[in-house]
Amino acid sequence: MVAAPSGAGKTSLVRALMKRVPDLRFSISYTTRRQRETEKHEHDYFFVTREQFQQRIDAGDFLEHAQVFDNFYGTSRSQVQGILDSGHNVLLEIDWQGARQIRRAMPQSQSIFILPPSRAELERRLRDRKTDSDEVIARRLRDSIADMSHWNEFDYVVVNDDFERAVNDLQAIVEDRGDAFRATRSELQTLVRSLLG
């Protein structure tokens, strides 16, 4: 599981990681979020209505689901199990709420949280997307701080201060060489204090 606050670079990092680690398979989430111009249905997400999402909840189809901002996201239980049954590792791009649910359902899973190097950099990345209004960006920043407060619930933490290094760190973790990136390492404390302020 890979989680991060909005703007930390999670999606770009996950895409780069998938290219490097051939054994990984990506679990495509369901969402009620509006599809962006650059996204493809059934490739980036399964874009569904709120009604369709609720039907899947009622049927027990989700391994986890959560509301993030004004939208819902969920992971298909059957999709994940099918990938595992085929002998591959599954990568879930998820939020901290979903990660909690996955840990309960699949305690053997490993979790990674991605932190930005600073609040200023987080805001710059959100603005550079050019997809949200100032009001939405301000709300995303507030929500990101709340999200980051859950960093210590994860097994590993990667700081995305340099993209290539962060991808290397993620690769080390998924290849069982990630002890240096454990969430318990002391050098994270100063960064976390500055991010949570």
From TrEMBL:
GO terms for cellular component: cytosol. The keyword Transport does not apply. ATP binds at A4, P5, S6, G7, A8, G9, K10, T11. GO terms for molecular function: ATP binding; GMP kinase activity. CDD domains: GMPK (cd00071). Residues 1-175 form the Guanylate kinase-like domain. The keyword Nucleotide-binding applies. SUPFAM superfamilies: P-loop containing nucleoside triphosphate hydrolases. It is found in: Cytoplasm. Pfam families: Guanylate_kin (PF00625). InterPro entries: GK/Ca_channel_bsu, Guanylate_kin-like_dom, Guanylate_kinase, P-loop_NTPase. It comes from the Bacteria. Its main location: cytoplasm. It catalyses: GMP + ATP = GDP + ADP. Its EC number is 2.7.4.8. Keywords: ATP-binding, Cytoplasm, Kinase, Nucleotide-binding, Transferase. Belongs to the guanylate kinase family. Essential for recycling GMP and indirectly, cGMP. This is Guanylate kinase.
